[in-house]
Hints:
The chain is mainly alpha-helical and 312 residues long. It has two domains: 1-160; 161-312, no CATH class. The chain has 13 helices and two strands. The longest helix has 22 residues, at 85-106.
Amino acid sequence: xxxxxxxxxxxADGYRVPQGExxxxxxxxxxxxxxxxxxxxxxxxxxxxxxxxxxxxxxxHLLSGLGDGLAYGxxxxxxxxxxxxxxxxxxSALALAVVIARDNLIHSLPPxxxxxxxxxxxxxxxxxxxxxxxxxxxxxxxxxxxxxxxLGTLTASRxxxxxxxxxxxxxxxxxxxxxxxxxxxxxxxxxxxYATMSLxxxxxxxxxTLEAWLERLAPAAAxxxxxxxxxxxxxxxxxxxxxxxxxxxxxxxxxxxxxxxSGSVQAAPKVRTDLLIALQNALRTxxxxxxxxxxxPPPPPPSHQSSSPHPR
Length: 312
């Protein structure tokens, strides 16, 4: 067990950086605590302190080193399933997202650093075997959810443009298509959709690329939710993701990472109408027993979009 009582006092003191302590040693301890089985120590203390210090600028001159340490955590025990090593990977991803979000605001990191982290993030997310959500005594494992948050933050980076964003789209598809026995049970579909919405708000990926990407996902979701035969978990997960993305695109969302760093209010992505039609066609084709065929156009986008933070 780490020095939880020491860190409890830090939290109670308003997250002030302790005087007379070496910041690098404190940071090493906090990063290690991201893998603690105790959810209060891991989330309520370690992540909470790191998030606060990053957001308040404590690490502004150390972002590169902090991010490298968190990226290293993505590889700890990778390939294991059902062990506590998933906690370190998952919460390292969540903390790395906070680091990138800080750079999205202060523009301090060079492209090579952020793109290297993006490579590590992609490699981890595609290789992650532990897709558990809530686990008794451990709390939220949430690797896919935190991976989605990391992807969403990357979509807002000025260092990622059309090619890189297209790769992230492919990563979402690849992650959904990997065979698994674990159905989403912790809003993973909604968080992946939310990250996708952030990407769409960049308005950099052309419609034909998006439609080709959707054509890759649609067959995998066909039949999910059928009343006659059980479906593989990844097919169910893909169908849930497509429904979540359709709903978010239809209703509009606020507070995505891309919107948070945008200089102007953006009500909806430019591809909204075309992508809604493609999504609706995919959903109808995938579940013909459920949805009736129609050619009605989607409603117009919402007229106003405000920004607010997205809960963890």
